[in-house]
Structure formats: structure tokens, C-alpha cells
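User: I'll paste a sequence; please echo it back and then give the predicted structure.

Assistant: Echoing your sequence first, then the prediction.
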Amino acid sequence: MMEPSEVFAGINYWAVVVAAFSSFIIGWIWYGPLFGKTWMKLNGFTEDDLKKESLPVPVTMVVNYVATVLAALAIAMFLGPESDAGFGVFAGLMIAGFWIGTSRLNDVLYERKPWKLFFINLGYYVVIYIIMGAILGAWH
């Protein structure tokens, strides 16, 4: 069994930062030009709704980035120092599909959100976790 200090010693923190940042770039594209209007419509949002955020945009982005760094850190710990890009891609797909996808299924089953919205959101998670897994798996 590995000691926690050994787990943290094997992490490339630059890879964690870059992997987390990659989700911002993908999110900007995914929820912008690719699916932004559809996502807004399916959520019942207007442009004005999005301007009336509960938190200022910079605060929202910092909180989201910190959460994404924590997710990338957890993936890095899971992958370990001996992984490669291929295993990172596989792990990212499994995380998105089996952990996040099955959890987000409740949005459809109990909250009665549209299936199309489920697939837009799940697609985002699949893409970002595959990319984060590839970065973390390859960059030691």
C-alpha cells in the first residue's frame, strides 16, 4: 500500500494545472459556438438570465477552476506515475461515462430534464475527462 506522501510525490502539478485549464477552453467552445444556444433553450435560460448571475463572473470562474483542479488532481492520483496517455484516455472515458454519466442520469429520471440536455452535458464531460486523462497520463 502506498503512503499518501508517495501518491502526492508522483504527481506532475503542471500537468494538473494544464489539464484543468483545458476544460475551460473546451467548455468555452462546447457551451459557446457548438451547443450554447441549444443548452440555453433546454435549460430555459435567456441572455439576460445569464447576465444576472448569483456570483460575479470572475468569482464563478475561480471557484469552477479550483473545483476542476481538484478533479484533475484526483485523476492524477488515480492514474499514478506509471500511466500513459492511452490509460489516461481510458480512465477519463470511464470516469465520465460510469461515474458522472450515471449520476447525471438522475437529471433526466427525477428532475425530468430533456434527454438532449443530458447528452450535451455528458458529451462535455466525456471530452474533458478524456483530454484531462490523456494529459495527466502522458505528462509525468
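Residues 33 and 95 are 26 Å apart (CA to CA). The chain has one domain: 4-138.
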